[in-house]
Give the backbone structure.
Amino acid sequence: MFDHAAYDRLKARFARIATLSEAGAMLGWDAAALMPPGGAVARGDQLAVLAGVAHALVTAPEVAEDLDAAEVAAEGAGTAGDPWEAANLRLMRREHARATALPADLVEAEARANSACEKIWREARAAADFSMVAPSLKIVLGLVRERAAALSERLGLSPYDALMDLYQPGMLTADVQGLFDRYETFLATALPRVEERQRKSPPPIRLSGNFPADTQETLCRRLAERAGLDFNHARLDRSLHPFCSGTPSDVRITMRYDESDPVQAMMAVLHETGHALYERGLPDAWARQPVGAASGMAAHESQSLILEMQACRSDPFLGWLSTELVSVFNGAGPAWAPSNLARLWRRVERGFIRVDADEMTYPAHVIMRFRLEQAMVRGALSVDDLPGAWAEELNRLLGIVPPDDSRGCLQDIHWYEGMFGYFPAYTLGAMAAAQLMAAARAAVPELDRALAKGDLAPLTHWLHAHVHAHGSRLDFNELLTEATGRKLDPAAFEAHLTSRYLS
Amino acid sequence: MFDHAAYDRLKARFARIATLSEAGAMLGWDAAALMPPGGAVARGDQLAVLAGVAHALVTAPEVAEDLDAAEVAAEGAGTAGDPWEAANLRLMRREHARATALPADLVEAEARANSACEKIWREARAAADFSMVAPSLKIVLGLVRERAAALSERLGLSPYDALMDLYQPGMLTADVQGLFDRYETFLATALPRVEERQRKSPPPIRLSGNFPADTQETLCRRLAERAGLDFNHARLDRSLHPFCSGTPSDVRITMRYDESDPVQAMMAVLHETGHALYERGLPDAWARQPVGAASGMAAHESQSLILEMQACRSDPFLGWLSTELVSVFNGAGPAWAPSNLARLWRRVERGFIRVDADEMTYPAHVIMRFRLEQAMVRGALSVDDLPGAWAEELNRLLGIVPPDDSRGCLQDIHWYEGMFGYFPAYTLGAMAAAQLMAAARAAVPELDRALAKGDLAPLTHWLHAHVHAHGSRLDFNELLTEATGRKLDPAAFEAHLTSRYLS
């Protein structure tokens, strides 16, 4: 462990920055979950000022001096240095490099533009009219391209990689492209075979009836609690787009409920709970330090998907869940049998909506966005041409064309709040989830027996020890290597899909 | 109008400060209305860092230079100067003087201590056990006394006046003491006479039945809308202690509902709506500038009380409200007649709880807090002796003694979040409300006819023009002088009480 006044000053400064970012996260949650529409302009200003203040704290001249001094001290400590401290310092240096690459007025302009665009997106999506939001999206994209150019120069990455690096450090376009090309090939063969098998099986019976949002919410809350979420440190609310936000001691999950169909919400809450448990499980000792944060968004998505897709759509867990649902909704008849629930929750279908997609076609939605956003950042695809390009890509990958903008390029919030380079994390996370589940099963023999009793604790304890507790000390591939013995390898995901859908 | 780069820089800086303060207001609202208990520690840190950042912005060395330069330019402009700009600059100077009097670590320590104490207060109040929160309150009071001492020296006011000046600038202990002594004399004679009259009248019949919180909330929302609150810019939620917070474009009202009795909530929402309309009506052109803010808390309270006490407990409005209540709650029988509602809503009673008090005994609750907090700030009353002193004062003023701490010194949040010097504003506001109502009635002949139709617009339009739209350009007494022809004069309040309760 190296001890140095410069490093201590940096720790205090980064703690302040993280605390401001917590404030921003809470205000962002409020904007999505509660805020009256008339508050949007002022909220945009609030987030912009918070972002500007945090930016000023990272880029203050004394930070560069302290980083230099702390790095010299750390080198002096050599291999005897604490790996947490060393990683923390390395991550501080990276945040500083990223922040100093960006002028303060760009940071504030982006925060303001994103907030304004997101608000218009909500209206445009409701009206299924992309043209309403196109002018705002152009402004957002223009600023994103400025940011990408500035980061590219500083980090020595391509502009798109420089954006992606923010969400999943260490993953490059070339790596992702390789994984995605391989998946396209897999999907081209596997998807028709799965569809063929499904045609020969009994069709799933829809759960029919009225499923009041309040009842669904109560059940969702119970499922989250059962997965280990402590509502002394969490809330469950509603928003247009389900998400998990907040801070490690105050996690905010939002959901939406379809009163004619409870199927989506049950799994969505388990998904968001996976994210929440990661945040709650981060190392307390490193709270508000860069090394105490989650190790990127693909790692985050692996935690939501291992709960939602790997554990909770497994036969053992669905057996337990069937009993639970029957009791809550007074279900009766064959629709409520575990076998039918499995057919409902594991139905593979070419659809328009990413968040509704099954785990096999979901990567296709990601792959097309990965291509489109690369083209937009490069300047090869204009905002006005986005709906057409969207239709073309979806048609190429899944053979379908969206009937309107709300089921096309208006469905996701990401681009409209300036998030370009994020989408690949979903599929990298899905692949990692399969790999982690295989390792957890091998390490914890009672895992499936516990799932059959609705008990997720053996899995979540293993995840805590092998993923959550590491914070950002390890990057995505290092984390997978420590937990599973090898870096991200798509074989486990393909094996999982083959086993679940084709055997 | 003077034009000066220094003044423009100050305006930009104060706008950032106000924006950070909006963020803090929203996080404070969330803490009271929604936050899970486990989030309290982190929230305290967030508020402390926001306060620290804002403090650093006000106290930066260049602010003093810019203030000096801008004041020279303003003097050069002489009487031709814009009174808004002049007032804005004057208020900036005052904020700067206040802030530079306080060391940054005191500001952050107070924010942190107040947030921690407030959390414990919630538990102590629920357990009716003052000893649980006494250690935290000692820390809070210690910091308040440090603040008072520092401000006293800088502003040339007594320590308690320096605190009160934060909430109602320009009002001094000596002025308030005079008004309060006069009121004590009035009350000593009037209260027994009112009680005597009440004994001779039919007793009010309690509205009996079950009044679901959701139904009450719907009605409260409708009353707020009817008073002119636009829910495109507002929310109505629930918390332990009803309050109005947020920002001018996103006002947050919270309420609590007693399902066995809807009487409190109806008037409480009108009270909070009065606050909300003031915020919503502040001059847009001066948003986020010191001169664009409300003119202190007594002025604020005058706006809530003119709605709640003056307008909505008047005979004409209660006539209308009776019909409304009957329709919402399917009320039938004599309990729902306007005359009984008047007896319910205008019942004078010696009670333990300030927020439940009628308008005649309410000032007694304020007067005792005014005395106790002066003594605590002076060091003449220790925290441990507070419950005893509380009982003594309440007994002296109203002849009653609280049965436990939750109905005694634990009932109000103020001290537990470091607000000392605030309480007088309630009664100054009540006096101002009576004075403003008399002026409004004289100026707007149709006012009472409109109230009889549940129409508050003639009153709220007059208030907008004569109070809200002035921001802080005028201080409390200047505002009253412009609106009513004279500074605060308790005669209108006494006349109102005499007319309503003794004629």
Observations:
- Chain B touches chain A at residues 16, 19-20, 22-23, 26-27, 30, 34-39, 41-43, 45-46, 49-50, 52-53, 230-235, 246-250 (CB under 8 Å).
